[in-house]
Amino acid sequence: MVLGRRGRGFTETLFGPLARALVRAGVSPNAVTVGGAILVVAAALWLFPTGHLTVGALVIGALALTDSVDGLMARERGTTSEFGAFLDSALDRFSDAAVFVGLSWYLVTSAPPAWQLPGLAVGTACLVLSMVVSYVRARAEGLGFTAKVGIAERADRLIVALVATLAVGLGAPDELLVVVLGVLAVASMITVVQRIATVFRQSRRVEEEQ
Known about the structure:
flat; mainly alpha; 8 helices; 0% strand; Four Helix Bundle (Hemerythrin (Met), subunit A)
């Protein structure tokens, strides 16, 4: 996971010393990437379904902040690689899936009966659409286009979901989480449309220039 362009300067200042210490200790950036993903998946699938929403949101939020460490380590070592970027992106999909599966599981088992099915529906929609948003961008870039646009990039979706989860853990009704996940699902669908439209415009320009 990443915090997006807006958070890179902050994380570099905050976690640069940790990254340099890990490099000196001989730890590889890829090991940090894999370890972080495993922790996120474990936390999401254990803490959320068992109702530990506050702890889960804080733990995953902290792991999201430290996720930039692997990139900082790679730059410190001067060994940034395409495989490292690929590995990070691939494992991010597992992390995203675990978060939304964990929240859906919680809503199905703990929300008021009238909200359990809607909770499952919006949680599943967030899970599927988060994958589609990422796929559209990856497919576009594979064809030589750019599609890093949209109202709900990955960092935005994660932050909103975790803030709502924390609020429910601190006493807000479960219905709030269902509503927020529904809004995220809609925002993700809009992002998919925005990215498709962006690629369409780029493809038209290429066709006109040929």
